[in-house]
Amino acid sequence: MLEFFNENQEMIYFLILCTFLGIEIIANVPAILHTPLMSGANAISGVILVGAIIIMQKIDPQDYVSLTIGTISVFLGTLNIAGGFFVTGRMLSMFGNKKKK
C-alpha cells in the first residue's frame, strides 16, 4: 500500500485537490445557476457513458470481472443521467405557467 502511494503520490494529491476544489465551487453556486449547470453535467455524463460503452465492446468476452464492473458503471451512469434530467425538468416546471384549477 505504501509503495502504491509513493509511486502515485502526485496523482493522489491532484485528486484530493480537485475534490476539495469541486466541493468549494459547487457549494457556492447560486440556486439560479443550478439548472444550467445540471444540464451541462448531464451532457458530459452522456459523453462519458458513450465512451464507457465503446470501451466495454473491446473487453475480452471471457473477462467476467471487467464486464460486470463495466455493466454496473453503465447502469449507474444511465441512472445518473436520467435522474439529472428528471430533476432539471422539475426545476424548469417551477418557472412555467401555473395551471388553473
Give the beta-strand count. Answer: 0
The gross shape turns out to be flat
Question: What is the CA-CA span between the terminal residues?
Answer: 64 Å
Identify low-pLDDT runs: none
Structural class assignment: mainly alpha
Which oligomerization state do the chains in this entry correspond to?
single chain
- β-strand percent reads under 5%
Secondary structure tally, helices: 4
The whole-number mean of residue pLDDT values reads 84
Q: What Rg is obtained from the alpha carbons, in whole angstroms?
A: 19 Å
| Biggest sheet architecture | none
Helix content range: over 70%
Description:
The chain has 101 residues and is mostly helical. The chain has one domain. It contains 4 helices and no strands. The radius of gyration is 19 Å and the shape is flat. The mean pLDDT is 84.
Question: What attributes does this structure have?
Answer:
101 residues, mainly alpha
Question: Summary?
Answer:
This protein has four helices and no strands.
Blueprint of the fold:
Layout (H helix, E strand, L loop, with lengths): L1 H6 L1 H19 L6 H24 L6 H31 L7
Helix pairs in contact: 3-4
Main location: membrane
Pfam families: PNTB_4TM (PF12769)
EC number: 7.1.1.1
